[in-house]
Each structure stands twice: as C-alpha cells, then as structure tokens.
Amino acid sequence: MPKMKAAIFVEAGRIVLDEKPIPDIGPLDALVRLTTTTICGTDVHILKGEYPVAKGLTIGHEPVGIIEKLGSAVAGFKEGQRVIAGAITPSFTSNACMCGCASQDGAGTKHGFKAMGGWRFGNTIDGAQAEYIRVPDATANLSPVPDGLTDEQVLMCPDIMSTGFSGAENGSIRIGDTVVVFALGPIGLCAVAGAKLLGATTIIGVDTVPARLAVAKKLGCDHVVDFKAGDPVEQIMAITDGRGVDVAIEALGTQQTFESALRSLRPGGTLSSLGVYSTDLKIPLAAFSAGLGDNKIVTSLCPGGKERMRRLMGVVASGRIDLTPLVTHRFKLDDIEAAYDLFSHQRDGVLKVAITP
After folding, report:
1. Would 221 disulfide with which of 60, 140, 158, 216, CB 3.0-4.6 Å?
2. Contact by Cβ (8 Å): 121, 63
C-alpha cells in the first residue's frame, strides 16, 4: 500500500512525523495532495493533552492543495484543480445543518446534533499535516482557489480567517460600534480585520507582544492596550470614557481574558467567545450584573463549506485584507516537529508557520 508522511499524535507531549498509508476514498470523497498547510493553536492544545484525540491520528485542519483523485459521486470539480477545504467539513445532511448549525453537524446521530461535529480534520478523521488528505463530502466542502492567488494568500481561509471573522459576525457588530479584541494571536488579528470590515469605528486590541500590537494597528486597531502596563479593563474604560465597549471578542480561552472581556462591556453589550477553554469558567457576579444586564455571551465554531470558503477568498482577492504578514516562518513537512517546537513555545515572534512538502 502506498505510504505518505504525516504528523501523527502519539501521546500528550508528542506529535511526530511518521509514515502511514495514503488514504482511500469513497464515492463522496476527494483525495487532495497538500501543497501548503499550517499549525493552529488548537493543535497545540492537542499536543499538550488538553484536547483529547485518538492516538495515531494525523493532526491539522487547514489544507491547501491539488485534487489528486475524485470519488465517483463528486460533482463540480476536476482532478488537478487547486482547492482549499475549510477546517469544518459538515455533511450538510443532518438536522443541525438544516437548521443553520452546520458546525454542530450530527450526521448519523439520533437527533442530528453533535457538539463540534463538523470539525473532523485532525479531530475525528485524519487531518492536513501530511502529504495527502481525504476530504469528506467533497462536493460541499472543496472550494476552487481563484487564479492569481497564492497558497499563502488563502492559507488563513480554512480556519484562522473564518474563525476570527465569525467572532466579529456572531458579536453582531454594527456600523459605529466600539469593539475590543482580547489576545492578538492570528485569530484575534483576524477578528480585528473582521470587525473593521463590519463597520466598527473604534477597535481596541489587547496583548503585550510589540510585534502583535504593530500588526493589529495595520489590520484596523485604533488603540492598542498592553495588559502588562496596567489593568486592561481600566485602560479600556479610559479609552471609552467609562462607557465600555459594544462588543468584546475573546480570542485566547482563559479565565482571565474571558473575565476581562465581560468586565469591559457596556450594559447590553455582547461577549463573543472564540477561545478553546481547557478548564471550567467562572462568571463574576458584578460583571454579570446579577444576570440582569441584558448582556449576551455567544460562542463560535467557525462555519465550513465551500460557500464560506468562496466568500473568504473573495475578500482576499478584492484586496480588502492581506493576511500574508501573519505567515512569519516557513518549514518543510520533514521539519514539522521543529515547527511545533517553535510554535508551541511562541519563540522568535512567530504568528503562523507555512508547512510545505
């Protein structure tokens, strides 16, 4: 059986490059030869054992590549075509999908809903940090890359851009809103860009890494807050003249950032949470206004499917956003263990790494 190289989860603390069979495909699937992928913060949660996956699973959920083989029932695509697939690959047949919750796809379950069910790559099936990937329900999940766009221009679309934008979208940002984004990693930076596109006119970014604060300004932040320079909530309240923000986007997944986001809201404001949490959260009573403050707390798992990908690549092609500066380091697949070491320890100003064959 033909073999390929893949980054495989062995145990908590160990993701290694090894060989495994090139995936077989069924009638609804496509086999894609990867040309570029990347490492996500969620992959680091998996590496650390904070998010459980099966031993032997290929990690990764951000594929850019070329169709190698199509299943007999896949329509609208051809072999040799450049494509991406979203990190979320719903079946689009379940009850959840049919009521607009495709990310919570419960295909095959009794009631048709499953929390995070649309996230399959690197979670419940083999993922993208490999030479090949099987894309399920390919007609619905593959999206052609427009001519003229490079791999790195669309590399953020499968997850980082989609997730960051969903934080802004689910926050229901309106023209003229004041928005704060806590944690300016790649997802938080994309949330900044999404907030600007949706019409926010005052955007505040919270972090402490100078390079991230600088990129945030380029992507749309009007103010940046260094949380090491003082209480970030106090700084936000000073910027807003004590009013608070309309929307707070939490893009890290810790008690501290969640609580600060809640405390920074005006009454009736919305906390849009994008973080992956690994411990229970506590809601502070005062910030929650005893449950009577008309605040909303919403969570997001980014949308998937080819239409979502088409729209995001359309934003890139239009020139309204350039996310290529987020790619700060480049590695070959053979060196992916070194890439994990760099990325997981956040050394050398890393934001995103591009992994190529």
Report:
1. 216
2. yes
